[in-house]
Every structure is written in structure tokens, then in C-alpha cells.
Design goal:
There is one protein chain. The chain is mainly α. Helix content is 85%, strand content 0%. The chain contains eight helices and no strands. The N and C termini lie far apart (77 Å).
């Protein structure tokens, strides 16, 4: 049987893994979105005009507009998730008081699905029914499939998404500060493809899946999406 110290270590490890996964998701969300969107904008501008100043200005405008927008969306969406989680917690507490037998039946169904039965099942239900907080935690996690939202990381998560969007955006934009339009466009696509492949590769290595396939998928999806900007620019470009 596991000791209290072993259980505590397992809980800490689980929390740390979840935190790393959440931060990785925020970096990928911001970086990939910023890179693909800005690449599409500057390729479209490059196809529409040979004026490199306009391309850089448009790229920078897209970079900062995108980063602010992504950070704001990350903040408000997480805040909405937090409000929804709180409302569901309040509803579960209310239902425990108003329809306890129905809630006990739901707990029985959950525990039965885990293989508990007979007297052990009855004892567990009786024990949980005497502790409302644990009762609600089980219902939130296993009936509603909802996990607590970390309010302390709300602002830091939004900032991480915004900064990642800026970093990702600068990858395709950087060549235009040093090279002519045609060479910059080619190099921007190459650098973006490499960056997207690396992100997909690392993501699979840290989570699950075939690293090479994941990198290739992310690269192809990102480049194809960005090339749509080039086609629009070529269609409406200056003669």
C-alpha cells in the first residue's frame, strides 16, 4: 500500500506535469498562430507590392495586433472557463442539498464503473456523502469532466501567449529587414517551415505521437494556410 509520502510525491509530480503541459500549449498556441498569420500577411503584401517598407509596416502591424489579440483571447477565455467552473461547483452543492438521493445514485454509478461493489461500494458512498467538498470534487471531475482552473496563472498565461505570438511573428518577418523582397519571401517560407516542424517535433516528443509525423503535419498545415495570403496578394496586387 502506498504511503502518505508516496501519494504526496505523486500528486506533486502530476501537478508539475500538468503545469508544464499547459505552458507548452500556450507557447505553441501563440507562436504558431503568430507565425502563420504574419507569414500570410507579408507574403500577400510581397505579392501585391514591391515596396519593402509597406511589407515591413504591414508585418509589424500584424505582429503586434496579433499578439495583443491572442493575449486578450487567452485571458478572457480562461476567465470564462473559471466562471463556468465556479457556476458548476455552485450547482453541484445546490443539488447535493436539494436532491441528495439523485446525487448519491450518480456517485454509485461512477464507483460501480470503477469496479467497486457490494458492501465496499455502499461504505464508500456513505463516506463520500458525509463530506460535501469531496463529493463535489468527484462529481466535477468524473461526472462533468471538468478540472479546476488555476486563477493564479491567468495573467502570466495570457502574457506567455502574447510574447510567443510576437516571437513567432518575427521569424518570417526578419529577412525583410536585410534582403530584397523576392529573397526575403523565399527565406521567410523556409524559416517558417523549419520553425513549424521543430515545434511539432518537440510537441510530440514531450507529449505523445510520432515526432517526425507531428512536425511534418504542423509544417504543412501552417505553410498551406500562409500561402493563401500570397494567392490573395497576387490576385489583387499592383500591376
Amino acid at each position: 500500500m502506498a504511503t502518505e509520502q508516496q501519494i504526496t510525491k505523486a500528486m506533486i509530480a502530476s501537478t508539475e506535469t500538468h503545469s508544464v503541459g499547459a505552458r507548452l500549449s500556450e507557447v505553441i498556441l501563440g507562436g504558431q498562430d503568430g507565425l502563420v498569420n504574419v507569414l500570410g500577411v507579408i507574403l500577400g503584401l510581397a505579392a501585391a507590392t514591391p515596396d519593402i517598407r509597406i511589407i515591413i509596416a504591414g508585418g509589424l502591424a500584424a505582429t503586434f495586433a496579433e499578439s495583443i489579440s491572442m493575449a486578450a483571447v487567452a485571458y478572457t477565455s480562461t476567465l470564462a472557463d473559471l466562471d463556468f467552473y465556479r457556476s458548476e461547483v455552485a450547482r453541484e452543492y445546490r443539488e447535493i442539498k436539494e436532491v441528495p438521493e439523485l446525487e448519491r445514485a450518480e456517485i454509485r454509478e461512477i464507483f460501480s464503473g470503477w469496479g467497486f461493489k457490494d458492501k465496499l461500494l455502499d461504505d464508500m458512498i456513505d463516506h463520500i456523502s458525509q463530506h460535501e467538498d469531496h463529493w463535489v470534487e468527484i462529481m466535477m471531475a468524473h461526472e462533468l469532466q471538468l478540472q479546476p482552473v488555476d486563477k493564479s496563472g491567468l495573467l502570466s498565461g495570457a502574457l506567455l501567449v502574447g510574447v510567443s505570438a510576437i516571437v513567432g511573428s518575427l521569424i518570417p518577418l526578419a529577412p525583410f529587414f536585410f534582403l530584397p523582397v523576392v529573397q526575403s519571401s523565399i527565406l521567410a517560407v523556409i524559416l517558417s517551415a523549419i520553425a513549424l516542424f521543430i515545434v511539432g517535433f518537440v510537441k510530440a516528443r514531450l507529449t505523445i505521437g510520432h515526432a517526425g509525423r507531428s512536425g511534418l503535419q504542423m509544417m504543412l498545415i501552417g505553410i498551406i494556410s500562409a500561402l493563401a495570403g500570397y494567392l490573395i496578394g497576387a490576385l489583387f496586387g499592383a500591376q
